[in-house]
Every structure is written in C-alpha cells, then in structure tokens.
C-alpha cells in the first residue's frame, strides 16, 4: 500500500518534469522541480548554456543520469550520474541513453539557462572557427562570419586545363545560413560574461547592419559579410558571430579609425575577392556607403583585369596539367597567388597612423607609391603596404619562364612592401618574422594581404 502510494507520488513528480525533445532548446529559469526528462536514444548530446550574469559569479551545476528516466541526479552522486562541466558559461555531455535519462539542476536561483538535446552533437558550442574583420573607417566596418561552406571547384585537367577568367563567374551561393552578428565596445567586457548565444544576443549590439550577404572571399569558403555603420571613432570593439542560433564564434577585436579618416571601404570585387578594405577614393556616389564592383570606376578596375587576362594567357602557353614545373604547385596556384598579389599592389590600402599598431608597414601620406595610376592623385593618406609574402608566394607558385621576381629584403623591398612580419626579413625563413602573420584577432594589422 505504502509502496503504491510512493510510486504514485514519484509518477506525479515525474509528470511535472518537462520532457526534452530532440533538436530543441529549452529556455528556463527557476525550474520546479529542477529536473528534466530525456528521451531514450542510442546517443544523445546534452548541452547547457547560462544566459546572464558574469563568469565570476556562482554558477549553477548540472547533472545528468542515464540510469533511468525517473532518477533525481545531483551533487549527491549515484550510479551513472555525471556532472556537465561548464566552461565559459556552457558545457555538454554525450552518452548512451538506452532507458532515457534525467538532467538535474542545482543552485540555479533565478539565473536563466538553456538546455539542448540532439543526436548530432551539442546544440550549444563555442566554435573553433573565427570571424574575420575586413577593415573599418571611423564609423563603419566590413565584418565576416567564419567560413562555413567550402566551394566545390573542380580541379582542371589536361587537355582542357581551364583557369578561371580574370573576372571569374562565381559559383551559386549556398542556402543562407542563419548567422547573427554581435558587436559591442570592448569596454563593455563581453568576454567576462558567459560566452553563450543567449547571453550575447540579449545585449544591444552596436551599430546598424546596412547590408548582409554571402561572399566567397577565398578557398576557405562562403562567409556572411556584414556592412556595419553607426560606430564610434577610435573605439576598440569586440565581435562575435552566432551560427545555428546557439553556436558562438569569437571573440575577435577591431578598432575604428579616427574621425578624420576619409578613405571609403571597398569589397565584393569578383576579380579581387579577398579585398575588403579602405582605399584612397572619393566618397562613393550617394546613397551608397561603400564601393563594390557595381560602382567602382572602370578606370580603376580595368587595368587590373587586363593585366590578369594577359597573365593568364601567357601562363596558358605552358602545358598546364601535362607538364609540371613543380611537384607541389600548379598553374592554378600560380594564377591564384598572382591574383592576390596583383590586387594587393594595385589597390592601395589606407591606414590610420593614429590607430595602427606602431610597428605596422606604413608609408606616410603623399609618398609617390601609386602603382595603379588610375587612382585620383593628390589624396592625402597613409598607405598600409602589401606584405612581401604576397609577392614571394607568387614567386614560389609560378613557373620560372614567367620571369616573376620579388625585390630582395636586403635591398629595396621595404620601400614598397611590409618586410619581416610573416617571414624573417633576414633570411626569408617562413613564419620566422616578427609577428608571423599579417594580422591578428586583436585588431592589429601590420601589412596588407
Ligand atoms: C551511461 O553512460 C555511461 C557513459 O557513456 C556508460 O558507461 C553507461 O553504460 C551508461 N549507462 C546505461 C544504463 O546505459
Ligand atoms: C573545358 O572545361 C570547361 C570548364 O570546366 C567547360 O566549360 C568546357 O566545356 C570544357 N571543354 C571541353 C572541350 O571539354
Ligand atoms: C547589399 O549587397 C548586395 C550585394 O552586393 C546588393 O545587391 C544589395 O543591393 C545591397 N543592399 C543594400 C541595401 O545596399
Ligand atoms: C535565426 O536566428 C534568430 C536568432 O537566433 C531566430 O530568432 C530566427 O528564428 C532564426 N531564423 C531561422 C530561419 O532559423
Ligand atoms: C595585354 O595584351 C594585349 C594584347 O597582347 C596588349 O595590347 C595590352 O597592352 C596588354 N595589356 C597589358 C596591361 O599588359
Ligand atoms: C594630410 O594629413 C595630415 C595628417 O592627417 C595632416 O596633418 C595634413 O595637414 C594633411 N595635409 C593636407 C594637404 O591636407
Ligand atoms: C582591443 O581589446 C583587446 C581586448 O582587451 C586587446 O587585447 C587589444 O589589444 C585591443 N586592441 C587595440 C587596438 O587596442
């Protein structure tokens, strides 16, 4: 009799416990009773995320059991009770649930949190891919999500070894991914909060997204590109990209330029897909805020595409795909590195001496270094020089008969390139330079690539 009564009470309690269903995320605060029932499945990933507070404050603890669907797992332990360890406000546990299971919460108080259940890996995650900063002006920035969908480009083969045209036709973009941008002044200390989508998206993001679209910037794949305006000059910002609603990429940092910085942003040039930076040009025709292939003057783009066309013609005189000039690189690598180099030297990148790192490869204003004579002369701007490695990569990837040569670091290279940042400037040791990279995730850009 007593046994039956207890069973009845246990059932009633179990019935008050929400059943978590697959691929759904439950938002909760102050659950009562503090238990959630899990479905039975051969494998489940249970993930939790905190949605408020600070990483320093006391945080709730989460326990999961796969022993039965009526247990009450907690810090008391027991058979098959596991703690979901939180790091930076989120955590997950993956295991087998032949007869269902239960998640128990302790010490949550009023703190809102989320629980997600999936058979395809945790729904909450800190991604190891990073967003990317194109460039900024005093009030605007071009920002990119991590690359999420690599293009499926065929490898050309002899005898029909066709290299992309100077102005390549872009493959069809993938289905739009739900990617959310979070930007906030670094002084708001977002990095000390739970690094979770529910926390970060609950904050007011800075600026206004004027445009959001997909862009195939390089071989890493398609990214969401955001044009953000309404930022404050000379301010360090923290940026995250939220993918699939609950996965967090970032943080990375960028700094807006001085308010006197006058170079507009340029991006979305199919012949120079990696370009997303400020150039010494007059403001684009109103109402546009940035230049792209639709409004960049032909006098600036045509010389570049013509050189690329001619280069490709000459490269094609080599029996690409039949004869090999190197065991490791191909005509395709040659054309692609040449394109990157040509774009970097043809489209000067503006820098702001006030906010650039002290060691950056800056060419002071009005120095005569304009390689694309179509740029309007007399502009007062400081140039961020291309990295010498954009040149040496081309030298390494192209056949000798093209006669492509880079200036030597010990002679005059530093007049026209940033030397010694990525590779050593003394002996050219790869990666042996002062920074080992042309930029970092903290907003420093030392040379242009
Ligand atoms: C619970 O999960 C653990 C770890 O995955 C496993 O060793 C154990 O056999 C599971 N218990 C049951 C009842 O399936
Ligand atoms: C050569 O390749 C291009 C691009 O892959 C294709 O469009 C073209 O039809 C091919 N030509 C021949 C003769 O196979
Ligand atoms: C956003 O960018 C796309 C692609 O460049 C363009 O077609 C569209 O007109 C832009 N929208 C606005 C509002 O600028
Ligand atoms: C995209 O994400 C936002 C916020 O994370 C969400 O509100 C919206 O429903 C999502 N849209 C789609 C189509 O998944
Ligand atoms: C490209 O080749 C054409 C034809 O050979 C030539 O007339 C033109 O001057 C070349 N352009 C450049 C920029 O080298
Ligand atoms: C060029 O810019 C510098 C730094 O912003 C400024 O000091 C100088 O007066 C400017 N010169 C001209 C001619 O505008
Ligand atoms: C921006 O803030 C980050 C984090 O505090 C810092 O590491 C970085 O150096 C700052 N960048 C600049 C340019 O001040």
UniProtKB/TrEMBL annotation:
UniProt-listed InterPro entries: MID1/Yam8
Pfam families: Mid1 (PF12929)
GO molecular function, one term: calcium channel activity
An example Gene Ontology biological process: calcium ion import across plasma membrane
Domain of life: Eukaryota
Name under which the protein is recorded: Stretch-activated cation channel Mid1
Species in which this protein is naturally found: Roridomyces roridus
């Amino acid at each position: 009799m007593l046994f039956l009564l207890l069973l009845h009470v246990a059932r009633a309690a179990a019935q008050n416990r929400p059943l978590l269903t697959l691929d759904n995320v439950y938002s909760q605060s102050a659950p009562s009773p503090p238990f959630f029932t899990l479905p039975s499945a051969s494998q489940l990933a249970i993930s939790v995320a905190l949605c408020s507070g600070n990483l320093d404050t006391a945080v709730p603890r989460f326990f999961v059991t796969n022993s039965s669907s009526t247990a009450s797992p907690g810090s008391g332990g027991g058979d098959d009770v596991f703690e979901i360890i939180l790091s930076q406000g989120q955590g997950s546990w993956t295991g087998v649930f032949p007869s269902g299971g239960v998640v128990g919460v302790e010490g949550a108080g009023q703190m809102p949190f989320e629980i997600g259940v999936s058979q395809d890996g945790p729904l909450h995650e800190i991604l190891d891919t990073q967003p990317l900063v194109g460039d900024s002006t005093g009030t605007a920035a071009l920002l990119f999500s991590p690359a999420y969908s690599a293009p499926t480009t065929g490898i050309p083969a002899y005898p029909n070894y066709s290299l992309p045209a100077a102005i390549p036709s872009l493959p069809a973009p993938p289905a739009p991914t739900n990617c959310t941008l979070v930007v906030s002044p670094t002084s708001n200390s977002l990095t000390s909060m739970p690094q979770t989508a529910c926390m970060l998206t609950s904050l007011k993001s800075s600026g206004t997204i004027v445009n959001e679209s997909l862009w195939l910037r390089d071989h890493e794949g398609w990214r969401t590109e955001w044009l953000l305006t309404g930022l404050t000059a000379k301010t360090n910002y923290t940026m995250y990209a939220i993918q699939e609603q609950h996965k967090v990429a970032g943080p990375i940092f960028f700094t807006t330029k001085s308010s006197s910085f006058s170079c507009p942003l340029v991006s979305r040039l199919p012949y120079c897909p990696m370009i997303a930076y400020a150039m010494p040009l007059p403001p684009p025709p109103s109402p546009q805020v940035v230049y792209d292939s639709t409004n960049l003057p032909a006098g600036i783009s045509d010389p570049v595409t013509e050189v690329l066309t001619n280069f490709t013609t000459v490269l094609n005189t080599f029996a690409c795909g039949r004869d090999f000039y190197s065991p490791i690189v191909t005509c395709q690598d040659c054309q692609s590195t040449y394109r990157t180099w040509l774009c970097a030297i043809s489209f000067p990148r503006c820098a702001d001496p006030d906010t650039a790192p002290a060691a950056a490869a800056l060419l002071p204003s009005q120095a005569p270094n304009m390689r694309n004579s179509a740029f309007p002369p007399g502009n007062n701007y400081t140039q961020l020089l291309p990295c010498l490695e954009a040149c040496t990569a081309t030298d390494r990837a192209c056949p000798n008969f093209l006669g492509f040569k880079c200036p030597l670091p010990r002679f005059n290279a530093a007049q026209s390139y940033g030397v010694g940042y990525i590779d050593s400037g003394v002996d050219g040791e790869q990666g042996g330079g002062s920074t080992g990279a042309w930029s970092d995730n903290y907003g420093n850009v030392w040379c242009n690539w």
